[in-house]
Amino acid sequence: MRRIWSLAAALAFLAVGVGCETLGPEKNSGTDQDRLGAIEIKINDLILDYVTCLDGDKTDWKYFTVPAETRVAVTFAFDEPSAGGTIVIRKATGEEMYRLKFVPGSRMVQEFDALPGHYYLEMFCEAFQSEYTIEVSIPQ
Question: Is 68 a member of any domain?
């Protein structure tokens, strides 16, 4: 009887492990699940997108190009506060510049002095799911 319980426990553990693998955090992501697949966004375009920890599309990557040395503003908001939305602004090399956790009920703005080149935005949720908006602009 003890062997049957051990075998049943091992099979249950294996089933749970296989189930988690098929429902991994990026199993339903598109090409924008990592920096190599980042989607270009234009300066002054408002982007609407979606991340979900529930359906396997936890992370989105976007990039923008700064044509000349200037000040840049990244404005973003997540619709669902419980999603724990986070945005990471990165240099072209992948080096993290800013990590910003969304504060419910507000639009977040991060301004910085940018040199010409590519900059990456990594958006992800830590729980549940949410739509988000993001805009890169040159403040006046």
Answer: yes
